[in-house]
Batch of 3 targets.
Target 1
Amino acid sequence: MAREKKFSTEDIYQEAHSLLMAVGYDKFSFGLLANSLSVSRAAIYKYYTNKDELIYDYMISEMEKMVDDLEKLDWLTDYPAQFQQLFALIFEYGDVHQISFMIPNKQIADDEKMKEKKQRSQLLHKRFFQQIQSFIQTGQTNGYIKKDIPKSIIIELIFHSVTIPDRVGLSQSERAYYLQEIICQGIFEK
């Protein structure tokens, strides 16, 4: 009997990420993942019972990193520099945002493990959103951001900017720079 290739949860996450970005949520399967890892599907089932469980664990892992990175930003610099750091962070995790938009808002399994995963995911989203909302509020209070624009619109604009397809071949940092410029300065010459 052949020995099963060794792989880690991180290997699963990296391959799942690549496949989700390449084929999307609907076409993602344990069969594709197993082929990509050069292992049997049974080997993956030792870790996860279904793709939703895997994707939730992956997303929770990435969101924990993102929240941690957000909390480590240098908030001592001036507000425009802080905004630049925040925007760069959001673009750094742009694929994660795109994957989260792929996942259908369907009812997940009623088992306790999936309920806990969903609650953890919601808690992390809420924590991240509250920090961003507080940041935008500070910008409005201190006169950097127009007060008449609802915070929720600003946040949605920032987060959805990472899902704009790159059809011209810009690097991630170039895209982030130009989109930030458009959000902060508009497209009209002054």
Target 2
Amino acid sequence: MKLRHLIWATAVATALSVAGCSALDAKQRAMIFQPSDRVWQRADMAGMQDVWIDFHSQADQQAVRLHGLWLAQKNPRAPVLLYLHGARWNVTGSTQRMRHMHALGFAVLAIDYRGFGQTQPASLPSEVSAREDALAAWHWLAQQHPQAPRFIFGHSLGGAIAIDLATRVDDEQGLVVEGTFTNIRDMARNFQWGWLPLGPLITQKFDSLDKVAHIGAPLLVVHGSADTLVPPALGQQLYDAAVPPKQWVLVQGGTHHNTNSLGQAQYRAALAAWLAPKNP
């Protein structure tokens, strides 16, 4: 084969490989995030304010405008909570969990990642873009409420984003994750085709099991015993890999969707020390 033919063949093979990898990556991002602008029909947004957070994405080199919902407390000194939601629904699907955390004493900011709700651009989200979005929201909270103790909360996929965020900041007072997992590879093993050797093909790793040991703040891991989407064993593994101070709360009968409401009393007991008034 002549050199120019070899170069041409190599270029074609490389292009096909890159195209294949790009398509695989996009498919994974779509399957994991299931981004949507759908409004949760039972959403109760009374008393919630729209929040807009503008920043420049270093990963995509584009302007980003995050949309969020802010649920304030009457007490201006109340602790603030960044709520990071899971897949499929936009932020309106989290309003009930926001209210449950609000009832515990938090002022709550919940955001939509790129690809969800009114956040712009409406691009396909990724592990990297969600990381940027969460960090931008955290900085916004620090600027708007510099004197308030700040906490991070993540549900399901949002738990993985929350754990990643907690490894990148050092001013959080605590981290709560509910119904979350160790990594995408372990989640894949729970599906019908989980026996396939998919590890090398995963581009969106969300490796919380590796990251959780590097969190410097108190950690609360909550899981429902009847969660069939994310098995409680994954939450337990995540807790076991973390370093103290940490707490594990298993809500009996809790599913992936109702653990936050069913476990309110357990939440309140677990968070009592975090939210106790500090002596001046």
Target 3
Amino acid sequence: MSSPTLAERRERQLAHDRERSDHLAGRIARPRRSADELRAVALEASTKFSDGQTDDLLAWVAEEFGHLTAVACSMADAVLPHVVARHLPWVDTLFLETGYHFAETVGTRDAVESSMQLTIVDVAPRQSVAEQDAQYGERLYERDPALCCQLRKVEPLTETLGGYEAWITGVRRDDSPLRADTPFVTWDEKNGLVKINPLADWTFDQVLDYANEHDVILNPLLNDGYPSIGCAPCTRRVAPGEDPRAGRWAGLDKSECGLHT
């Protein structure tokens, strides 16, 4: 079978974009429930889904929250949004545009948007990198990485999550000892909504196996010694046998950006 022509690929892309636009136009808006209501939902679900069952959990999410659901994706891979989109096509997928990403991460983001049934929402900080440098000095990530993450990740995400009832993350228990007790469903007090971790009991190998089985896009850095991918200045390759997150903020007393703590 011959490869599609440039014109055919272009038409396929236009059709994909039209389908996304039609879906967004047809969404039915409803009011966001109160924090007390959502907290009660989270408490009940945390017991019901204490043993995981990814598909059952995400089917419930689609019915309970619909498109007041957001997926957080770092674009290390597209497994999480792929799993979610099977139950909630064109789900909003939040990408933290920190201004410090590897080129491979931005390329993965663009490839995911152009090929998958999801809606990328770029979450940007209030200041550009240049504006932040002017106020705090260059390379803030070296001198005060916690503040840099707060400004470029935590605050923008918190503001964006205010429009949703639930957010889905790819946090896994095997990421690090700090994440070993990650629940499948919990109440996120800091952000005021339900937090769902459907891949909590997956291993890194299971993520890769799923990607291979379903032809899901992977960030090429995963095959270049980066099992955990963050901002380029704060991420290094991981040696064999090291903790998967050992390459994040290496040499600093920091292992989390603050999104999940």
